[in-house]
Amino acid sequence: MIAYYVHREGRTEQLEAIDPAWLSADSGVRVWADVAEPTEADGRVLQDVFGLHPLAVQDALETVNNPKVETYAGVLHVVLHGIDFLAESDTFETHDTDFFLTRTFLITVHDAKRRSIHQVQELCRNNNVILEEGPTALMHRIIDTMVDHYRPEVEELSERLDQIEETVLERPSDELTRQILAVKRDIAQMRRIVLPQRDAVGRLARREFEVIDQEMAYRFRDVYDALVRLADDASIFQERVTGILDAHLAAISNRLALSSQRLAAVATIFGTLTVLSGVYGMNVPLPTIGGSEATEFWWIIGLMTIVTGILYVVFRRMRWL
Which architecture characterizes domain 2-252 according to CATH? Predict the structure, then answer.
């Protein structure tokens, strides 16, 4: 589905179709074509009406792409990613958005779940200035909104790490290992997206492309700085989760060692009792302790009790029990 936002004669309006003549450089019209959940039919429109290169359209129709910046026949093609951290399921997802930019039009292709796109669409409906500034300024506004959405998601991920750290220190468990590895995978995914995205926006800030003038380069520079900070956060998170995993494994190892000590103490106590009962249970003459057979039984029970008490005190002092 393609939604067209057209700025002409001082007004911005949403249309269901456009006149190809509006795409010429001297028309004075600014067009934003937003393609949500693209289909093959939408791809043909992008080729036939907007003159996009078939390879660029093929990339746009794919659901997974790494961040990148390329040019096809004078059209700037940018692929960037938005993120969602779903705390209820402990998953961290990224979604790509394709931008096609010229001096007269901007095309965005996405999965219809992009909050930044919806926000800018609402601004375009209510404010004529948004599209009047031109397609490059519009693309900057969308990208800037996408990056702004990173911060609360990253903070939520940071809070999740804090919770896991507290759990590791207070209640380590085998189930916690799965959670730590899941967060570690999410952070690795974040780094795989943020680092190349930082480099892609950095190219937009260096004025490598004619469609981006000096003023727009300054604006993209601000977005680049924000992505640099996010990349640093991703590196810090990677170190944190590695430390958390090490601490968790150490806690599990300590619990195992403590359990082994307790088992060894119990085995030693009962082993001693087994030796005493085994010796005096043999069907051979043995030295007597004194008194009748009944009295000797209680002597042996008393001896076993004394030995058990001594071993218990020793192991308590050694903190094995």
Answer: 2-Layer Sandwich (3.30)
